[in-house]
Amino acid sequence: MNGDVDIEAGAERFASMGASPAPMTASERASWAIAVAAAAETQVNRVMAQQLAAIADTIAEARAHPFVFDGLGSGAGREAVEFAVLAAVAELATELHVSEGTIRVRALHAETLRGRMPLLWHRLCAGETSYQHVRVVLDAAVGLADDAAAWSAYDEALAGSAARVTPGALRP
To answer: Are 10 and 96 in contact (CB under 8 A)?
Structure first.
């Protein structure tokens, strides 16, 4: 099977088949389908990065401007911020049909990637690695020293691997 499949040309050929399709070999159909699946995975990864960023940004807005989320527009102080974050998390969970715990974890992952693992964050944003890979890497980082040099070394060591191996292969 040829790994260099022109997805657009294959899509045009497939779309132009109409009532009397030009025959494609089984190998061509399989190669094209694999290429389409890989392109879709890249897009899914990019969109997941966008979702993580949007979740973290929404919670950051709640912290910075609690009045937006308090329903009355009058909140100030620590209690108002806590309430605004709870409201933002609840609204995100409702919109995304996931639990509030999932929203909190995704926000933490986005903050950690952006602040401590920019190489891995870039890979996810580019669609080169998946959120499943990211979760494995971040789960393995539990207990890593709160030290910028340690996080930088960890990021450098795993960002490239996360784009080339299965999530299971990343597990310690």
So the answer is: no
Q: Which residues, at least 6 apart from 124, have a Cβ–Cβ distance to it below 8 Å?
A: 45, 46, 48, 49, 52, 113, 130, 131, 134
Place of tokens 């099977």: 1
Helix (H) or strand (E) holding 104: helix 100-116
State the pLDDT confidence band at 144, using cuts at 50, 70 and 90.
confident
Q: Rounded mean pLDDT of 149-163?
A: 90
On the CB side of 46, CA atoms within 13 Å amount to: 8
Which residues touch 150 (CB under 8 Å, ≥6 apart)? 144
* Dihedral sign from CA coordinates of 141, 146, 152, 153: negative
List the one residue out of 60, 158, 42 whose CA is nearest residue 107.
60
pTM recorded for the entire structure = 0.81
